[in-house]
Specification:
275 residues, 44% helix, 8 helices, Spore Coat Polysaccharide Biosynthesis Protein SpsA, Chain A
Length: 275
């Protein structure tokens, strides 16, 4: 995994002044049929964050998600597990309501945090900072040249619409938030805007970061078109995002093409072996 992490980049000295965060902190994860990468995700949380409570808001998963969460409750004894039928917006609202610490961290269930994630994020906190988001790196991006451009584009997108893949949040900035129930997507942008409306900065940074293991279903043309339609609905109000989303589309298209070629090559090889 090390070769996927971006090189550390210089940060603004005014933003990087150290400020001690009272630890441990709560960590909130949303799940729904998340067994695929859940253990790796939670292992990276306990390895890199001083966890007070692990808050899991689950959408009534039908796979092994609940039993996996039970393993960590048995091991650590600090898991809060709740289930609800709703949207990502309502689930994040529920999670925020369960937070008891001055700071907390949102972590997506299909990401793995980089080493020393919390220690690096804490160094960026000062009295003007309400949140720190570590850049998400798609696990399929192993080409360093593409990765470097992807990082820059991804941070530009974050500046406009936010992100909660791995977001450290000053709790008091969102305790009175009321996330619209219908926001199943772009609830992350709503959270970022809310924090900034309180007069705080939300930093998007290269370090710390997380590796995002997007599901295989993402790398299909049907799902790609669904994402494009969804993104256009948002980007039409923020035209500055259109080139960035266009770049994402090129990456996804290339990955779909590569996957299809790989499958065809595998079929040919299997056919030759049968003969």
């Amino acid at each position: 995994m090390t070769n996927l992490l971006p090189q550390e980049k210089e940060t603004d000295t005014n933003q990087s002044r150290s400020s001690t965060i009272k630890t441990p902190v709560d960590v909130a994860i949303l799940t729904f049929n998340s067994e695929r990468k859940l253990r790796e995700c939670i292992d990276s949380v306990y390895r890199n964050i001083p966890v007070n409570n692990l808050i899991v808001v689950d959408g009534f998963s039908t796979d092994k998600t609940e039993s996996i969460i039970g393993e960590y409750q048995k091991k650590y004894g600090n898991v809060i597990f709740v289930q609800e039928k709703g949207t990502r917006g309502s689930a994040r609202q529920t999670a925020i309501g369960l937070v008891k610490t001055d700071w907390f961290v949102f972590v997506d269930s299909d990401v793995v945090l980089s080493n020393n994630w919390f220690a690096k994020a804490e160094k960026l906190v000062n009295s003007k900072v309400g949140g720190v988001w570590g850049i998400e790196i798609w696990s399929v991006l192993k080409n360093n040249k593409i990765l470097s451009l992807f990082e820059r584009v991804t941070l530009k997108i974050f500046e406009q619409r936010g992100g909660t893949h791995d977001l450290l949040v000053r709790t008091k900035t969102v305790k009175d938030i009321n996330i619209p129930f219908e926001l199943h997507t772009y609830e992350d942008g709503y959270i970022k805007d809310w924090i900034e409306s309180k007069g705080y900065k939300v930093l998007g940074v290269y370090e710390p970061c997380c590796i995002h293991y997007r599901p295989e279903t993402v790398w299909t043309m049907q799902k790609h078109i669904e994402f494009v339609v969804s993104d256009l609905k948002y980007a039409i109000h923020r035209p500055i995002l259109l080139p960035s989303y266009g770049f994402y589309s090129v990456i996804v298209g290339f990955q779909i093409f590569s996957n299809n070629n790989g499958k065809q090559e595998k079929k040919r090889n299997n056919g030759q072996q049968v003969q």
